[in-house]
Amino acid sequence: MLALDLGTTxxxxxxxxxxxxxxxxxxxxxSRFDGGGMRYVRFAGWLDSMADDAxxxxxxxxxxxxxxxxxxxxxxxxxxxxxxxxxxxxxGIAYQGVPVGTIKRHATAKGNAGKDAVIAAVTxxxxxxxxxxxxxxxxLLLWAIETQGGVR
Length: 152
Known about the structure:
The chain is an alpha/beta fold. It has helices at 38-53, 71-91, 100-108, 115-124, 132-148, and strands at 2-5, 9-15, 21-27, 59-64, 94-99.
């Protein structure tokens, strides 16, 4: 099972079949020589490698963002979301978006909690996120495990 905080810096958390949880963040920032779609090509390739490393994925959960602070952020999120959902459909992998407030409420008991509160909440659960993207992905994975039984 994989949980994603989609963006140019994508946070991820994965529960392996053994029950172990791995997490991190990965950058899909384009180089100055990349065309406009290369970040999405690299994202799809990264998804392939994550599925291979996990020996398959049963489900992917992603942070469902309904409001962005800027037009560029909205466009980038839409590109990552389209790439993810097409990738999942092509491989027959279940996917589900989870509203940001739902994730924050589960992690911190406050649906509008800030980044620091989410980081503190997952740190209190024994994780050591490098950034807010990784913390959000961990919080999402914990939500999926604890409320959905991990797979829906």
